[in-house]
Every structure is written in C-alpha cells, then in structure tokens.
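Crash report, auto-generated. Payload:
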Amino acid sequence: MKPAERAARLREELARHNDAYFSNDAPLIPDADYDALARELRALEAEHPELSDETSVSKKVGAPSSTVFSPVQHAEPMLSLDNVFDVDELRAWAERGAKILGEDAGALSFAVEPKIDGLALSISFVDGIFTQAATRGDGRVGEDVTDNVRTIHNVPLSLGTGVRGRVEVRGEVFLAKADFEELNRRQRELNAKEFANPRNAAAGSLRQKDSQVSASRPLSFLAYQLVDLDGSLSFARYVDTLGQLASWGFLTAAEMVVELGVDDMIARSNWFEEHRHDLLYEVDGVVIKIDDLAARVKMGFTSRAPRWAIARKLPPEERTTRLRAIEVSIGRTGRATPYAVLEPVVVAGSTVAMATLHNEDQVAAKDVRPGDLVVVRKAGDVIPEVVSAVVESGKKRAKPWSFPSRCPDCGEPLVRIGLESDTYCVNPACPAQQLQQIIHFASRGALDIEGLGEQRVAQLLAEGLISDVADLFFLRVEDLSSLEGLGELSATSLVSEITKAKAAPLSRVLVGLGIRHVGPVAARELARAFSTFEALAHAPLEDLEAIDGIGPVIAGSVYQECRELDSIVRMARLAEAGLALSEPERGGGPAATLAGRAVVVTGSVEGFSRDEAEAAVIARGGTSPGSVSKKTYCVVVGDAPGAAKVTKARELGIPMVRAEEFQRLLNTGTWSSQLA
Ligand code: IVH
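Recovered output after restart:
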C-alpha cells in the first residue's frame, strides 16, 4: 500500500475509534491497539511531511463535544501527554529536556506519579467558589458537566476564604477498583449491562444527563494540575502546588515521589510498573513531570502536549488477537471450562496463546466465535481471559459456538446442573479428571510430593500405573525405573517422596482430595474437630454442621463425599497403604498451617521483628531457615529484602509472597497472589 493510502486508511480508522471512545464511551479496541495505529500514523507523517496536515487526527486531542452537554471553552487548552514505551525512550526524553534547559540530566528533579486510567476534568473556581466543571473534549472546547461533578464526594465546593481570582483544578475522574467491582455487582443485580473497565464506567457515569444517576455512582477525583489564571498564587515547584491542592481538600496521588536525576526517576517508574496492581485505581502508565515550574516555562509545548511531561505507558493488559478455536478442558471436579485458542499475542509482557472463557453463558454473553478478532486481558497473576469480540465491518463470521454435548476426553455426556452456569463431565472414570485430581493431590497446597508434576502424572496414567491417588502409594521402584526419563535413582527418590507424604496431617489429605467447597481453612477445622478420618467419615450431618466455620454447604458436601462408594474405596486403600489420616494434637496453640514447611522471611515485615516472624512460623509447625533452597515452601518478601534470597528464589522458582500476606500465610498456609 502506498504511504498516502495507508495514512488515509489510518486516519479513517483512528477517527472511528476516537468517536467510539470519546463520544460513546465504548471503545472498540484496547488502548494499546489504538496507540499502535496512532504511532504508525505519526511515524508515517514524520517520514512523509507532505502527508501531514493540521487537521490530521494525529494532531488532535480527544474528541469534539457532543450536543447533550453545553460546550465550554477552556481558558487554557487541556493538552494531552506524549508517550514513551520503554526506558530508553524515557531517558532520551529526559536528556532532550536537560539540553533545552542547558543542565545536566542528573541534576533535574522529576515528579513521578501514576497515570490514572480515567478521564480528564477541569474544575473552575472563582474567588474560591466552585463554579463550573468541564471535560477535556477536543482540548479547546469541552463539555459542561458541572451538575454531575458537584455530586462527586471528594470535590470540594469551596477552597476557603482568602482565595481570589480564577483558579482551575485539573485532574482525573476515576472509579477506584473496589468501587468499580461494586458498581458492576449492582449492575448485575439490576440485570443491567456490566462495564468493561473502570475507565468506561467512570466516563459513562460522568456523562449522565441526570445528575441523580451520576450521584449514585461512586466516582472520585484526583487532582494533578493547578491553573492559576489570574496569577494570584505563586509557587516554585509542582510539589508545592500539590500541597496546596491537598490543603484545599483535593485528593492527590499518595504514590507521587520527586526523584533527583534520570536514574532514580527511571527506577521509580519501574517501581510503578511492579506495583501497578497494588494501587487503589487502575493505571495505564506513569507520568513524569519536571518539578521546577520555571523550567517548565522554558521548555514549553508542542501542538498537542507539554515538553515538560511525558507518559511512560506500561505494558498493555489488553490486546486484540485472532480467535482460532474454542475448546473445552476438564478440571478435577469434572467441570468443563471453555477456553480460547488464540494466535499468540504479547499481553502484559508475556505471550498468551490460550485464555479462559469461563462457562457456556459467558461465551454466549460475549458472543465470541472462532475466527473473530477478540480482546484478550491479562492483569497481574490473573488467568488470561477473553473480554469481547471486536466488530469487523463487512466480515462474515462463523456460526455462534455451541457447547459440546460430550466430554472431549472420555466421550460421556456433559451435563449442566440446575441453575448453575457450569457444565460437568460426571463420569468418575474420566481420564482428564483423574489427571487433574492426582496433580492437585500432589501439589504444594496438598501433599506436596516433590517430583510429581503434571508431566510425570500424565506419564504414569498413560502407562497404566495409576488411575487414582491411592495408586501412588503402591508404586514400586521397579515399576518406575524403566520409564522414559526416570532412572533407578530418580525412581527411588520419587518413591521415597511419596512414602514421606504418608505422614501428612489429615487436613492436607482433605485438601488433596478436592472435596467440593473444602479449602485449606475448612479442611483444618474438620481435621481438628475429628482428629481422625475414621471419626469424620462416620459423623452425622448435625455434628459436621456444628463445627465452627463449617456451614451447611461444606457439611453437606463432606457428608455426601464420605458416603460415596468411590471415595470409601479410595480412603480404605489410603489407610491400607499406611497413610496417617489423623491430625496431630496441637494443644492450645495456633493451627499447624505450615506443618513441615520451610518459610524464608527476608526484609522487614510490618508488625513483626525478625525473631517474631520466625517464631510465628515455628508456632504453626513450620521452620524458618536463613537461606533459600529447593525445599523452601515460599519466601516472604518484606521491605528492603536481601537480593541473594530473592535471586535464588527466582532461580529455583520458589513462590515469593508479599509481606502484606504474611498474616494470611500464617492463618491459612496459603497466599492469594505472588510476586513475579
Ligand atoms: S498531566 C498538560 N498527570 O492522561 C498535562 N495526566 O494521556 C496534562 N492522566 O489528559 C496531563 N494521570 O487525562 C497528567 N498524573 C497524571 C495523569 C494524567 C492520568 C491523563 C489525563 C491526560 C492523559 C494524557
């Protein structure tokens, strides 16, 4: 395609996306894909200046105002930010700035703060009184959203006495992550459409014709710019303006730090990349601003953005890719989960080739079909998921996907029970279920059998050596030593690891059995209450329900499990193999949540001295060695952690848990998310 044609095509595409994003609050593609198109157009225009013209979308900021809200002319334009996508570009930006200022980049002070994924707002005050609020619009003219902004809980309506002249406070309207979840929960209850992400939800909530509706939405505002139109205030540094904003009652970014020199500035921006999921709001980048306001004046602006600020975009958590097929996988409980087979795409820094589609209803609600272009999302440790299909005009789509009627592994019928959205393979002999059950039984959270990972279990199943967890304990060295990849030595060590697991406390065996609704906490309550499996298996339902922390659902599930023929046989065989199936007495101390586990603590953990942290682990049956090894269960990473321990843990693939989760680890023996 000729450059002129390509530029025209890109402009058309971008205009369509701009309209969807800004005017309808309903983006068609993820921001990262939009950025890629915009970058391509800008590069093309830079290379072929004859293609560039002042009306190009590449020069525009946002979208023109709609007709629903009255237009508001901004006293000073609301500019956008230029983006950089990696550390080298960021360094180059800082060095260009230093050159303009004739200073050394090592001597510049940079404010580094989160780039909140919301929408920009300018709030006008006259003599300290709130008078008007406007969206950014196209940067020159925005929309009057005064009535709606008045209802935002953390926008002060007065700056107090003593403030003279016209002042504008600019910042971001957003929905905190927790508020977004809550809003979507409410939407579900009302059978209303859920919002795709906090930004869309915030935009949709702000641009309501009825301010009562806005008021019912949990919007927040964070201030990051003070525009002093009459020159009645005087500040030397950006941080001073933030201090003023905070003293007027505005929320400002608590994570903002001023760093001296490019290296520390870059390190701080990396900190944001690492901690983006720990913040209360969703961020799509880091904003770096020159702190010295006089220096900002010297640096000035380009047509769309200031030279004194830059946005470092973080790896996008949403991308589009092609959906090759939809398949179904069978879990250990027999649950059949549909998943997407994708053309591999890099999302949040790692390659994603598969993503979950949750269940039949989700596939139908999202209406994704093989061959579609789809939006894939991967945030933090969360399993990648398909968010939606992208509408491609004029393209013929496949038929809507329908859930298979038979299990892809055993061929038995799949069933949907009652009102649940999940579909199950109910054949207890299904090989896929057996595989998942045995993997779970041997996993860290359960019997923690080293050397028994997914591949090994699959191999043992395929060789017909096992078909149930109990079979593991009857394996002999001579059965294993002739298998591919397993010599005499590893066979011996695998058998010895399995033998060791026989001593596991009942609570861990209960976790390993994967009884529905029984997690580590319930398993421990049950094991402590009955001490032996024998007693638990014969307990009447009332006795199960009477245990603290065990509700009727868990009690019912355990009661039923203990009376199923398959599980009676399994437990009898486990007993025959010599498993302890009992819970050691622990007197009045805390539960043995970490029995036999080595937990290394590095760095300081709030609320615990080094000795106290160690004692807490030991009190729960664990050990707390001073160094990381293959046998380490997990590493708790506090403030200023030891580099050697972290590196070693990373090398050995030992889970690293944030110090914030230490108490949870002590209470439950597990954690909710781990550091990469
Ligand atoms: S400063 C002239 N700081 O990002 C400088 N913007 O892509 C104006 N944004 O329009 C912006 N967090 O809506 C600034 N800490 C932050 C921000 C931020 C989010 C948004 C804002 C802006 C857009 C530019």
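Post-recovery validation: DSSP finds 24 helices and 21 strands in the chain.
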